[in-house]
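Protocol step 4 of 5: obtain the predicted structure for the target chain.
Materials: sequence only (see below). No template structures provided, no constraints applied. The aim of this step is simply to have a reference model before the mutagenesis design in step 5. Sequence pasted as it appears in the construct record:
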Amino acid sequence: MRIIEEALAQIGIDEEFETYERLGGGDINEAYRLNTSECSYFLKLKKKAPEAFFEAEKQGLDALINQAGVHAPKPLGLYRSDSSGYAGLLLEWIETDKTPARQADLGYETAKLHRTGASYYGYTSDTYIGELPQPNGAFSSWLEYYRDRRIGKQAELAKHRGLLPVKRAERLTKLREQMDRWIPAEPHPSLLHGDLWGGNWLAGPGGQPYFIDPSVLYGDRELDIAFSKLFGGFSAEFYSAYQADFPLAYNWKEREPLYQLFYLLVHLNMFGEVYGKSVDRILKHYIG
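Step 4 output (structure tokens):
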């Protein structure tokens, strides 16, 4: 495949390219296992990808590995072709193991990630959540960042897409006006995965958990935990290990639906009104 060979050459992989295999499971990107004379690689490709789409993922993986010291596939290089319209990201290949996934270790890895901090909330460069742009910025207040950059931006997009009927819009406005009742201004600014659902980690050699597909930011670690509970995929062992290593505040569940609201708004914007009732349920819970 010419694009694959071009990507390897542009990134600087001079090993002899032998075979490739198209992989399933990705909704956003094309994914391939590449086999060379020396090893295997994982290549993500996307046609007409935004300029910084893969750069944001590369920065996120670098942060997980180099700042937090947790396991994630090492990013090896970026690819972009004006002629084909493709962009891509080359990663090390993680050989999945038949050893049962060690979810307790995933809990410990998540706690280790969340202990990594910063002096601000948000992120200094923009990222993506799924295919949606995520404007960021460095904020001194977590409340302000979450209210304006997370809930506010998704609300703006939902309005633009015709997904905010009058009552939903009114409740969202009231919720943002009263958000200081629930969201703390200055929690520990943890490094967050940012998209921590059951499909964004894998079991590598020996069952060692690896984080994949991050959308990183610094913020309240309860945001990651809340999303992990939204669609399932994490066992009781995960939460027990996390709580034993880095206990959450006694009242963290009071904020859980409010942190899940961001991800439900993302899904509303990506997949449509099928997520509208879930958004409305949370708005009614807090606003009535």
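Step 4 remarks: The longest strand covers residues 40-47. The CA atoms of residues 164 and 170 lie 9 Å apart.
Proceed to step 5.
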